[in-house]
Write a structure and sequence with these properties.
Mean pLDDT: 79
Number of domains: 2
Structural class: mainly alpha
Order of helices and strands: HHHHHH
Radius of gyration: 25 Å
Number of helices: 6
């Protein structure tokens, strides 16, 4: 019990020293595990956690989503969607914010050709 309180105090001290929280938690957890089990199991655990995290499906989606956004931006599709949804040619429709534009471009209610 006392080891966990010491680890928590060290974690708070590192955070107050403006160390990023992820690095502070990794350092305290790694050194705490090494203190409790030994250095060899701690190094093995570090390698296993890094390997398991890099193979996580939820983290593999992030670069693909960024790549999709870059492809759309580079091809001009995104510009066309936003320009088509935010045009101010119709006098009864004021210019709208980009969040509303994103919702309108994905909305199946009406297309640009149906507007009068």
């Amino acid at each position: 019990m006392i080891e966990s309180l010491i680890g928590f105090a060290i974690l708070l001290g590192l955070i107050l020293l403006r160390v990023p929280i992820a690095f502070a938690m990794a350092a305290v957890g790694g050194f705490g595990f090494a203190y409790m089990r030994g250095w060899e199991p701690a190094w093995a655990m570090t390698g296993q956690v890094a390997f398991d995290t890099s193979l996580s499906y939820s983290l593999s989606v992030i670069p693909l989503f960024i790549f999709m956004g870059n492809v759309l931006a580079g091809s001009g599709v995104a510009h066309g969607l936003f320009a088509g949804a935010a045009d101010s040619e119709a006098p009864d429709r004021p210019r709208i914010a980009s969040g509303s534009v994103a919702l309108r471009t994905c909305s199946p209610r009406e297309s640009k050709s149906e507007r009068v």
